[in-house]
Amino acid sequence: MNPNRRSLRRTLGRYSRRNGPRKAQTLLAAGLLCLAGAAGAAPAQVTPVAMQAPAAGQHAAAASPFTEDPARAAVERFLLQQTAGLPGKVSVQVAPPSGGRAPECASPDPFLPAGASPWGRVSVGVRCGGERPWVRYMQARVSVLTDYYVASRALGPGEPVSQADIEVRQGDLATLPRAVITDPAQLAGAVAANRIAAGSPMRSDLLRKAIAVRQGQTVTVSVEGEAFQISSEGKVLADAATGNTVQVRLRNGQVVNGLVRSGDTVVLQ
């Protein structure tokens, strides 16, 4: 027997007589652990396992088996051209034709049906000439993210609209009223034609220009050229707003048409 083990047993015998067998068993377990550590058992060997590399191209996106449809690409270009003058950021999504890919066509010619708008959900026709002409329709969604203006407070009929009465918002032109105001310059000199609730989009059909000249008012009538200006006086024959055309009777009785420049000046056209 290992001398260390005999010494441990003698020590445990004396400890058990003084402190009881349960505590002696605890001490025995601790001693055995110490002896095991002293024996210097060889650590377990770990055999490395080679990691298998993924196959080349395993995570690469698979190439699309569908080639670009010339008719569909032509519709996208057409809609981008049609919306080039709109305010805001334009995005176009053209759905694949429900009847499958369009027949081959060297020069597809997209068109919009009469009265259709080039934004929102639109149906675009594509015609192709040649020996076997055909016409197909494709569905598209055109979004125009733009700034527009709403009333910051309730406005009553006849109230002038100032910069303090409007707030800017951002939204899709396709979901907004067709006459929505997207340029604050459109509100210059405008008054509410009807009641406008707070938070409502400002629309051109809810506004009118403020009356600048009144019927019977005496105004300055001017004729302007590159190097000259001739002025006279006349009486306005009807109410008119700035920028509108109005008739004016001159002192000699002649009636002329002019453009209202301000509250006291009409420029002959």
TrEMBL record:
Q: For the SAF domain, which residue ranges apply?
A: 146-208
Task: Please name the taxonomic classification of the source.
Answer: Bacteria, Pseudomonadati, Pseudomonadota, Betaproteobacteria, Burkholderiales
Stretch forming the signal peptide: 1-41
Q: Which GO terms describe its biological process?
A: bacterial-type flagellum assembly
Write out the GO cellular component annotations. periplasmic space
The species this protein belongs to is Cupriavidus oxalaticus
Protein name as it appears in the record: Flagellar basal body P-ring formation protein FlgA
NCBIfam families reported in the protein's UniProt record:
flgA_cterm
What is the annotated localization of this protein?
Answer: Periplasm
Q: Which UniProt keywords apply?
A: Cell projection, Cilium, Flagellum, Periplasm, Signal
